[in-house]
Amino acid sequence: MAKKLYVGSLPYEATDEQLSDLFGKAGTVVSAKVIVDKFSGRSKGFGFVEMSTDEEAQKAIEMFDKNKMGDRTIIVNEARPMEERPRDRKWEN
């Protein structure tokens, strides 16, 4: 079963491909996505990587958590489900 990882403190110039290449050293990457702001198109400094097995995901955490990517020390841990956020009523019609 695939395991999704949260990757924080990414360099702002990091790409999906760079993230995939890096985590490929720990195993098979199912997907890698740097999250970008929908208005500016600029990276938000974090992303998600999905590894093909729990074992590869654990290996990736051990290999990359608190290690450098470019000039930043990245954070890698198991992704948590997205929490429901309250909607801002002023934007609704």
UniProtKB/TrEMBL annotation:
GO terms for molecular function: mRNA binding. Keywords: Repeat, RNA-binding. Transmembrane segments: none annotated. SUPFAM superfamilies: RNA-binding domain, RBD (SSF54928). Residues 3-81 form the RRM domain. InterPro entries: Euk_RNA-bind_prot, Nucleotide-bd_a/b_plait_sf, RBD_domain_sf, RRM2_NsCP33-like, RRM_dom. This is RNA-binding protein.
